[in-house]
Specification:
Number of helices: 0
Structural class: mainly beta
Oligomer: single chain
Strand content: over 45%
Largest sheet: 7 strands, mixed
Amino acid sequence: QVQLVESGGGWVQPGGSLRLSCATSGMIFRFSNMAWYRQAPGKQRELVASITTGGSTNYADSVKGRFTISRDNPKKMVYLQMNSLKPEDTGVYYCNAANRDWGQGTQVTVSS
């Protein structure tokens, strides 16, 4: 059974940074493309960043240059480093594996 557990969310002032982590189990991690999504209140869930098994990355235009997705295959972890955070980055951030499995989400709030 695939399990994805996000951590690292919280409250931060505009311009601040957070690092999200996603611990995985029950899957062959090195063979899985991974991604981070977010859902703001009243909005649809959207793709933030993705990383392939080979390490290729893709970002939403709104986070390019500010967010970095990475993976650690031996630890079966995926990360999202978020810098220069803006209020519009507020939302629940979800880890996704292979376009199929989801974590429970972690709340990120950016406000002054």
